[in-house]
Amino acid sequence: MKMIVKTLLATSALFSLCLHAAEFTLPSYQKTVLENGLTLYLMPQTEVPLLDVRVIVKAGAADDTVGGQAALTAEALLLGTQKISKTKFEQQLEFVGANIDSGAGSEASYLSVSLASKDQDKVLPLLQQALLHPAFDQQEFDDSKGRLIAELTQKRESPKAVINDYFNQLLFGEHPYAKPLKGDLQSVNTLTLANLRSYYQQWYQPNNAAVIVTGDFEPKKMQKRLQSLFGSWKGQAATKAALPALHKPEQAKVLLVNKDDASEATFIIGGPGISRANSDFVALSVINTILGGRFTSWLNDELRVNSGLTYGARSGFRSYTQGGSFYIYTFTKTDTANAAIDLALQTYQRLWQQGIDEATLASAKAYVKGQFPPRYETPSELGDLLGDMFVYGFDENYINSFSQQVDKLDLAKTKSLINQYFPQQDLQFVIIGKAIELKDKVSQYGNVSQTEINPPQAD
User: Fold this and answer.
1) Which residues contact 378 (CB under 8 A, 6 or more apart)?
2) CA dihedral of 283, 288, 293, 297, whole degrees rounded to 10
3) What is the mean pLDDT of residues 229-236?
4) DSSP states of 252-277 as a string?
5) Contact criterion met (CB below 8 Å) for 454 and 166
6) pLDDT reported for residue 374
């Protein structure tokens, strides 16, 4: 009897979880735009007395005129204000246990703080000071620049740390998406404090930004508080030139990055991808789950479990506002590089040659639906989602119809999407390893060019 009860309880819990996943919708939120153009997102979540506040600016590394501008400008917001030194700024936040962070991606920069709800009157003015009145102190800038140079220098020792930069450069060419997120050694060495001030004046303006608040707060009071803190922020962001068109590769290319002391070959194979707002984004995530998006994926099974060529292999889409990339990534011993690349390509070709059967598709759909709700459980995760909506131009339909989009994916649609979105011709290869042992081996995959390991040099 006890065993039967336990089984029933387990079955009931599983059913409840599946039902929860199927009915998951984005919590309600308010979106308003102040007179100065600043967008506000307010999403109350009162279960835990915590607050997450983030500022999103629609500018990142793709907008750099000197590589590293976006990254160092974002960091400069944490290095003191015109009224408070860096030390006092940090002490005041530390005293109430608040965590603050900043950074920059390809198309957006952020400043975020997590805090106890009871401390918002102490912390929000500090956030406002950091955003509207950064000190841009010369000594702090020199120290920040030195840290970034040291980071980029160390990065060259790790193929895994730099391979995405090389792949973006190969795939995107002269497009802004090719710019490395933190610049490179050459560009960062030339950066000045004036470059950061210029970037800040161009892009850190209210009509180019959003303030997102999630967690334990009363919406009307928060709206009034944000109006008081940020309503007087004045200015207009520079007009952005339209991004140039993304061109598909016209031939298969291999970029061989020499690392003389490497005992492994680290590689990415890929091609053009999709924009983040693409209506097929959800369906493609299901298909990629089968190919290389989970531990039991085809790629991981073949390259790790069955052949022992690597400790792991994966695939995925990286998406931006205009487009993106598709990639297959793994690493292996130098002397098994060809075997691993060939097996990765053979496994990838199964999408067309063998296709996906009903049982495999059903398994992937259940997996994706089960993994979805836990991705948006905390105020911070919900804030990230609202920030992505602001930057990339998709709406809550991504969340609210997620399960329906997964459910309606059938074998015929799967085949159509594979043919439409997964690049099959003119693949691009980046391989990092000991070039003298790899060059002849990899020439069969495309036109080979070679460079020494180093973060790609930005124009």
Assistant:
1) 52
2) 120
3) 96
4) -EEEEEE-TT-SEEEEEEEEE---TT
5) no
6) 79
